[in-house]
């Protein structure tokens, strides 16, 4: 079945999502991993990070990172901002603003990065505030592990707009334990230590990896025709008007457990993809932690150094 119909006019769908989000739901109309998964990924990543050689991260800073990832979907203080700034990837730079809606994540992501950069260069910044803001930035990078956000396929967790089925597929308790070898830790440290490393590069790399995982692009970034997951995500949208605006759409198979229809994948294949993408989100969370610690060290952040030595 169609997971999210694309036939309604754009204006009707967008305005309905905006109005209902303000009335009934504190979450963004484009929520990916649910807030519990966002924060759980961040906490599990912080725990794996702490096991890497030569690393010190106070528990309260790992918790602050997780709080930031959660707040980006659930804080009442930014409900209007979230309702008008959606979390979809601006694939091919085609997903342009619509009235007062930022349909892609670029504007809000840049805003969150700007605030983080300001905190990272303050020698006396509150470390908890730094890591919470890093979590807000990380939230969008984690979102890029959700195919519906990268394709992008419109969805909203609101009446008449079903939530993304990938988001609802599995609980954190059902996922394999996340851990990193010393070599994997070093690879992430090296990646974060590059001169051109920054959150935007991390986000674009995550989006590219997801599009490759669902076989919409190949290793060279070229479009793939008839990829293995074409029954689940389609790009561009079949509706020419929606395609012109930059949208993809959900396919004829729903990413959910249960009866398998003809042409749909077996449950174990869905589980394998979800676990792969969950690991990607957690790996990128560790990458963000290495990046933040590098930037704090460069700035001589006194408070963070003191906390790490406790």
UniProtKB/TrEMBL annotation:
This is S1/P1 Nuclease. The lineage of its organism: Bacteria, Pseudomonadati, Pseudomonadota, Gammaproteobacteria, Pseudomonadales. Residues 1-32 form the signal peptide. SUPFAM superfamilies: Phospholipase C/P1 nuclease. Gene3D superfamilies: P1 Nuclease. It comes from the Bacteria. Keywords: Signal. It comes from Pseudomonas fluorescens. One of its GO terms (molecular function) is hydrolase activity, acting on ester bonds. InterPro entries: PLipase_C/P1_nuclease_dom_sf.
């Amino acid at each position: 079945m169609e997971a999210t119909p694309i036939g309604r006019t754009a204006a009707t769908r967008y305005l309905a999502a905006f109005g209902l989000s303000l009335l009934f739901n504190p979450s963004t109309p484009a929520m990916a991993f649910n807030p519990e998964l966002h924060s759980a990924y961040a906490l599990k990543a912080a725990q794996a990070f702490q096991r890497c050689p030569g690393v010190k991260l106070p528990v309260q800073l790992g918790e602050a990172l997780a709080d930031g990832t959660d707040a980006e979907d659930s804080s009442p203080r930014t409900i209007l901002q979230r309702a008008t700034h959606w979390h979809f990837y601006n694939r091919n730079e085609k997903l342009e603003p619509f009235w007062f809606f930022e349909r892609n994540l670029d504007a809000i992501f840049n805003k969150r990065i700007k605030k983080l950069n300001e905190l990272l260069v303050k020698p006396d910044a509150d470390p908890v505030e730094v890591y919470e803001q890093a979590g807000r930035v990380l939230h969008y990078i984690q979102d890029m592990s959700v195919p519906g956000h990268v394709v992008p396929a419109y969805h909203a967790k609101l009446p008449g707009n079903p939530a993304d089925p990938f988001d609802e597929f599995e609980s954190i308790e059902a996922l394999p334990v996340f851990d990193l070898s010393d070599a994997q830790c070093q690879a992430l440290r090296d990646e974060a230590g590059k001169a051109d490393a920054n959150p935007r590069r991390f986000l674009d790399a995550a989006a590219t990896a997801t599009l490759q995982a669902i076989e919409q692009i190949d290793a060279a970034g070229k479009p793939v025709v008839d990829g293995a997951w074409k029954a689940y995500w389609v790009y561009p949208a079949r509706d020419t008007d929606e395609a012109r605006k930059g949208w993809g759409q959900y396919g004829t198979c729903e990413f959910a457990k249960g009866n398998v229809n003809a042409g749909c994948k077996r449950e174990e294949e869905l589980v394998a993809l979800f676990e792969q993408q969950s690991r990607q989100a957690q790996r990128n969370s560790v990458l963000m932690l290495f990046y933040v610690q590098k930037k704090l060290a460069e700035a001589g952040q006194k408070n963070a150094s003191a906390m790490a030595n406790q």
